[in-house]
Design brief:
By secondary structure, the chain is of the alpha/beta class. The protein contains three helices and ten strands. It has a single domain, classed as 3-Layer(aba) Sandwich (Rossmann fold), CATH 3.40.50.2020. A six-stranded mixed sheet has the order 5-4-3-6-7-8, sandwiched between helices. The chain has a four-stranded antiparallel sheet with strand order 1-2-10-9. The structure holds inosinic acid (IMP).
Length: 179
């Protein structure tokens, strides 16, 4: 069923059951890949809050969690390429295995900004996991992006953490903009 958010129309795109199945697969892979380590998982707020929670609940390895808050869309449906850092990361990550958990990699601008900052803190390893990736929008490859839930086209999506003008984050399914 279509829905309206702040004047835009959205239609169903990825169902909650498909998201859950993919989360399950990724969490199993992370548990295997990080076995024997205690990684620091960094959630990028606000968009990753549901994905982050669903992933960490299913990990069967010890891990630490922390958050940073970055914004780049500022209420529209296209990246402004200007990043605003609302909550700075203060975890000590030197010598640690670090996994950044994102909602979506679009142009890759936010990912590059954050990964560059983290690299300077000299973690033992640095990887990224994103629920969604828009390969056609990517301006340069993000080498640390090792785990991706779904590759999608250049559509604007909401739901399961993602918003349009701060609306739609609470939806269980992911919807895409019509037209
Ligand atoms: P990037 O810096 O262009 O890769 O954009 C990353 C950020 O833009 C994400 O963390 C989201 O907050 C936001 N974003 C990108 N695409 C979408 C979308 O389709 N819906 C909602 N937010 C998006």
């Amino acid at each position: 069923m279509e829905l309206r958010l702040a004047g835009l129309t959205f239609e169903p795109f990825i169902a909650a059951a498909d998201i859950a199945a993919r989360v399950d697969t990724i969490a199993r892979k992370l548990s295997a890949d990080y076995k024997g380590t205690v990684p620091v998982l960094i959630g990028v707020l606000n968009g990753s809050f549901l994905f982050f929670a669903d992933i960490v609940k299913q990990l069967d390895i010890p891990c630490e969690i922390t958050f940073t808050k970055l914004a780049s869309y500022h209420g529209g449906t296209q990246s402004t390429m200007k990043i605003r850092e609302d909550i700075e990361l203060n975890a000590a990550i030197q010598g640690r295995d670090v996994l950044v958990i994102e909602d979506i990699v679009d142009t890759g601008n936010t990912a590059h900004y954050l990964l560059e900052k983290l690299r300077l803190k000299q973690p033992a390893s640095l990887k990224m996991c994103s629920l969604l990736l828009k390969p056609a929008a990517l301006l340069k490859p993000v080498e640390e992006l090792k785990y991706v839930g779904f590759e999608i086209g250049n559509e604007f999506v909401v739901g399961y953490g993602l918003d349009y003008q701060e609306l739609g984050r609470n939806l269980k399914d992911i919807y895409k903009k019509v037209g």
